[in-house]
Write a structure and sequence with these properties.
Blueprint (H helix, E strand, L loop, with lengths): L5 H50 L6 H25 L2
Helix pairs in contact: 1-2
């Protein structure tokens, strides 16, 4: 096996580091896009629950109202988790 010079080794290491950096940046962009998409979906779910609660509060059974309140609470908790993950 031929020995590589220090210059060749440094060049190879720099190329590998650059490839890793590019891969990391692609993964980070994908993760940010996924977080954004999840936030939108969770907000939509919470807003739907709000609409149902606001439109017919007296007509909703206690159990259904509790389910909608639960949807809102879980959505809020998930949004907080996503915010914590995406915090810079």
């Amino acid at each position: 096996m031929a020995k590589k010079s220090i210059g060749e080794s440094n060049f190879i290491a720099a190329e590998e580091l650059s490839a890793c950096s590019d891969d990391f940046e692609r993964r980070e962009a994908t993760a940010r896009a996924a977080l954004h998409d999840l936030r939108i979906q969770l907000r939509t779910i919470a807003e739907c629950a709000d609409v149902l609660l606001a439109d017919a509060p007296a007509q909703l059974e206690t159990e259904r109202r509790a389910l909608l309140d639960g949807i809102k609470a879980v959505s809020a908790a998930m949004l907080q988790i996503l915010d914590d993950i995406g915090a810079d």
